[in-house]
Amino acid sequence: MRFINNTFNKPKRYIKTSQIELTKLKNLTTIQERKEYLDAPANKKWNEIKRHFERIGNNKCWFTESYAAISDFYVEHFRPKKMVHLIRNKHDYPEARITTDTAGYWWLSYEYSNLRLAGAKPNQKKGNYFPLLSTSRIALNENFTISIEHPILLDPCRKEDVELLSFDGTIAIPSQNDTSNIDFTRAQISILIYDLNSAKLKRARARVYEEMKNYFEQAQLNYNSLTSEGSGKEVKALARENFVSNTSNLVSMLKPTKQFTAMVEAFLRIQNLDWVNTYVIQEAKSQKYI
User: What's the whole-model pTM score?
Assistant: First the structure.
């Protein structure tokens, strides 16, 4: 997962459509009427912004950083539109809700800020889950502002949330080491609900991981030759040429258009090496890749 800025360049046409659709929903008086309306294919207007989301997300799932070749894309409702299930069959965290919400956040069904781009797996696995911290208030209807809520699930559109995830090799893990910290729990539950460690996803990450590791190991060997007092002039010249190529490849793997950049960045940072920071991390920052 990497941060997605969905606040700029909002599609004006869709914003207008969302307002019209919300008015229609408000005119319906029962939960069943709203669900039937939302289930009708012609009323799934949120799909109109799928291509826009693909563009701002660099054609990757916002939750997994995988391409569509690995999973089809769906417009995901971050806060579920028709029903909210409890996570007690998934995790024992005592969330704020104590019963299933049969209405869901229906008034956010077309709300641009509530929509995300998800691959098939996270979209399916997340389903109607939206747990809140045990101390959180709950937005029960359209008269409440959602700012009163404190969600558990990490949001790719919140930079501080994205930073709560890291990687151990190809495995998504909480970046927070303190298991008693609520940020650890939020990351742990998000990994579970979004299925961030599915077998298919780990296999896809493994291919990128091996490529990255090869570039890294070659760069380390060439750096050692460059800095060794025993290396001759010709050896150092060749090592320098290869080192530049190796680090350039590593920087390229951090481009926003590439898959699994968060995994690549986590691996590089954990090495804690001066040459990695100077020639890879800082270079990637200068090109605004990270």
Answer: 0.93
